[in-house]
Amino acid sequence: MPRFHGMPVATAESFRGGAPDAYGNPPERQRSDGGAPCRCCLRMIPEGAAMLVLAYRPFVSLQPYAETGPVFLCADACAPDSAAEGSLPAILVSPDYLLKGYCAEERIVYGTGQVTPVPEIAAYADALLARPEVAFVDLRSARNNCWQARLTRSA
């Protein structure tokens, strides 16, 4: 099973502290309807809980393959659920997701993008990560292309 990584906690904390998003705007504060997936802890934000909405670019450098999109974050501090390691994150509530492999330079490895049913995500990610040119796999919404998580090789 690949390892699922949300947004780094330090990055989430900077947004909670008012750091500008990928477009230079402050994160918007809203209330969750119960269906908002936090991209830091990879759990659903409870209904009525405060959350942040912001543009996020999970790439180090600006380059043509550095996709940006909207994400939700718990407005209060959260951390990845270590008890969930070795299983799929709780945020995977859609029937399928888009997986894409990237090289170490954060460029898409062509031919890796595939809409994948949830039960097949781990197997497809493992197959991509077995390829030497694939450094990581990004998991995105198959319908809205929003970044969900980053997958890496198991330790």
From TrEMBL:
InterPro entries: DUF1203 (IPR009593). It comes from the Bacteria. Residues 13-34 are annotated as: Disordered. This is DUF1203 domain-containing protein. It comes from Pseudooceanicola albus.
